[in-house]
Amino acid sequence: MRILLKVGITAVALWVATVLIGGISVDGDTGARRALTLVAVAAIFGLVNTFIKPVIKTLGCAFYVLTLGLIGLVVNALLLWLTSELAGELDLPFHVDGFWPAFWGAIVVGVVGWLLHLVVPEKHERHERSRKDDKKRD
C-alpha cells in the first residue's frame, strides 16, 4: 500500500512539473490516458531512483563532498532525463526536452513530493500521533 502511495505522490509531482516546466510534456488524447502515463512514468522513476541512484551516490561520493551535495541536483536531473528516455523506449508519451528542463523538473518533483509527503503522513507517523493523542487524553 505504501508503494502505491509513493507512486501516486510521484505521479502528482510529475504532473506539476509538466504544468510548470516548458520542456517537460506528457501527451495523450484523454485525461485518463495522461494520468495512467504519469503513474507508469512515476513507477519507472521510482525504479530508477531505487536501483541507479545509490550506485551513482556511492561511486560519486567524493563529488558530493566536494560540491557540498549540489551535485545531487545534477544527478536528479540526469535521472529524470533517463526516465524520459526509458519511457520513450516503452512508447509512453512522456518527454523531457533536455538537461535544463530536467534540472528544473527534478527540483519541482522533489519539492512537490516533499510537500505531499508532509500532507500525507506515513503509516508509522499516523500511529505515533494517535499514541501521543491517547497519552494526552489519559
Tell me about this structure.
The protein has helices at 2-20, 31-51, 53-59, 61-66, 71-89, 99-119, 123-137; strands at residues 24-26, 94-96. The radius of gyration is 17 Å and the shape is globular. The protein has one domain (2-137). It has a two-stranded antiparallel ribbon. The longest helix is centred in the N-terminal third of the chain and has 21 residues, at 31-51. The chain has 138 residues and is mainly alpha-helical. The mean pLDDT is 89.
Keywords:
single chain, 138 residues, mainly alpha, two-stranded antiparallel sheet
Condensed summary:
This protein has 138 residues and is mainly alpha-helical. It has seven helices and two strands; from the N terminus they run αβααααβαα.
List the helices and strands and how they pair.
Blueprint (H helix, E strand, L loop, with lengths): L1 H19 L3 E3 L4 H21 L1 H7 L1 H6 L4 H19 L4 E3 L2 H21 L3 H15 L1
Antiparallel strand pairs: 1-2
CA-to-CA gap between the ends? 32 Å
Multimeric organization: single chain
Q: Average pLDDT, to the nearest integer?
A: 89
Strand order of the largest sheet: 1-2
Give the structural class: mainly alpha
Tally of individual domains: 1
Helix content: over 70%
The parts where pLDDT drops under 50 for at least 5 residues are none
The proportion of residues in beta strands is under 5%
Overall form: globular
Question: How many beta strands in the DSSP annotation?
Answer: 2
Order of helical and strand elements: HEHHHHEHH
